[in-house]
Design goal:
Elements: H1 3-11, H2 15-30, H3 37-55, H4 80-94, H5 104-118, H6 122-133, H7 139-147, H8 151-156, H9 174-181, H10 188-191, H11 200-203, H12 217-229, H13 238-245, H14 252-267, H15 270-274, H16 281-287, H17 295-319, H18 321-324, H19 332-344, H20 346-359, H21 369-373
The protein binds a DNA duplex (10 and 10 nucleotides) through helix 14.
GO molecular function: DNA binding; DNA-binding transcription factor activity
InterPro entries: HHO5-like, HHO5-like_N, Homeodomain-like_sf, Myb_dom, Myb_dom_plants, SANT/Myb
GO cellular component, one term: nucleus
Length: about 375
DNA sequence: TCGGGAATAT
DNA sequence: GATATTCCCG
């Protein structure tokens, strides 16, 4: 609708003419008042506004009488012309909202609740949020986690052992679900209250595959963290990881799958390493001994960090820019390749970024994302 | 029962 | 093609 204003501006129409045009428009729309109540209303408002401007009066908008069909949902206080923008905004913002997956229902909630954060780089905020999870006391999360139980617990028998101070009840719940899934795009907090979404497991009733679990950054972080504590991807088992992660609703299978992927990623590069061609690969590997842990992380992982180096960090390095630093300019070929990879593995990389920071010596990175963007390895997936 | 890996689905 | 789920085997 905002095209009206535009139109007017462009054509420099006089208000009288414009009003006339609007009236005309309204007549046309009137026919579809059922289908386009809003449009009708908007036009009506626009007319009203024009009239007011024309007369210079400050009369209040009296929209009620304008359209018989409209239900008047918008605040009449707002000048029509201004309203156009917001409306449009709203409409457009809804689409690009989430990064990936399609949990429409959730998205909606998320959208609403996260409206504020959305503006700026959502990713950033997400990231930050996820970071927060690692604070000494992540109350919110724990709450959520606590609330719902994990089926897998039953499966695994030992319900979490040492790592799970609390007991789990029945049913993996949505809350949990939201925690582990939502993060996909920042919706953690928002969803805690999410209504009666059906849990994936429940959906299974359909006899179909369960809903895909989205490994949010948070989740992945947890995963990595667990991995660290368990001595790396090679030595950690899915069950252990799951317990370590202490995420309700997370199943062994899911962890296993993720672990599989993780290993895949971390190992894939190794061959390259052998090729001397890849300067980046080899070096960093051990570089890691020197760790600079980010504050948040340090608190938790410091002790195990060193250990992890060999196992976890090293592989990551392959992709990671870590190694690269030594050779800032490095070969183009390598760069390009990695870059592409990086893109794909962005998710991992993302979560790992912090990891890198901890493990990698400062040299590696200035944790600044920009550095990574730089060319080479920086692109590496965080694995 | 569990873990690893491959096949399969999304 | 990447990622997650499911199946199979030891």
């Amino acid at each position: 609708m905002y095209f009206f204003t535009e139109k007017m501006q462009r054509s420099k129409m006089g208000f009288p003419d414009y009003i006339q045009a609007l009236e005309e428009e309204r007549r046309k729309i009137q026919v579809f008042c059922k289908e386009l109540p809003l449009s009708l209303e908007l036009v009506a408002q626009a007319i009203e506004a024009c009239k007011q401007q024309l007369s210079g009066t400050t009369t209040e908008y009296n929209l009620n009488g304008q359209s018989e069909c409209s239900e008047r949902t918008t605040s009449s206080e707002v000048p029509v012309l201004e309203e156009f923008i917001p409306i449009k905004k709203r409409a457009s913002s809804s689409s690009p909202c989430c990064d990936e997956d399609d949990e429409d229902d959730e998205h909606h909630l998320q959208r609403v609740s996260n409206e504020n954060n959305k503006n700026s780089d959502k990713r950033k905020s997400d990231w930050l949020r996820s970071v927060q999870l690692w604070n000494p006391d992540p109350p919110a999360e724990e709450d959520v986690t606590r609330k719902v139980s994990g089926m897998e617990l039953k499966r695994s028998g030992s319900g979490g052992g040492a790592f799970q101070p609390f007991h789990k009840e029945e049913r993996p719940a949505k809350a949990t679900e939201s925690l582990s899934k939502a993060p996909c795009s920042t919706r953690v907090a928002a969803t805690s209250s999410s209504a009666g979404e059906v849990t994936p497991e429940k959906n299974l009733n359909d006899g179909q595959r369960k809903q895909r679990r989205c490994w949010s950054q948070d989740l992945h972080k947890r995963f990595l963290h667990a991995l660290q504590q368990l001595g790396g991807a090679d030595s950690a088992t899915p069950k252990q990881i799951r317990e370590q992660m202490n995420v309700d609703g997370l199943t062994n299978d899911e962890v296993k799958s993720h672990l599989q992927k993780y290993r895949l990623h971390t190992r894939r590069p190794s061959p390259l390493v052998h090729n001397s061609s890849n300067p980046q690969a080899a070096p960093f590997v051990l570089v890691g001994n020197i760790f600079v842990q980010s504050p948040e992380y340090a608190a938790v992982t410091t002790s195990t960090a060193s250990r992890e180096v060999s196992t976890v960090a090293a592989p990551a390095g392959i992709y990671a820019p870590v190694a690269t630093h030594p050779t800032p300019v490095s070969q183009p070929s390598a760069d390009s390749t990695k870059r592409s990879q990086f893109k794909k593995l962005k998710h991992f990389e993302h979560s790992n970024s912090d990891e890198r920071a901890h493990h990698s010596e400062g040299a590696l990175h200035s944790n600044s994302p920009t550095s990574s963007s730089s060319t080479h390895t920086s692109t590496s997936p965080g694995y």
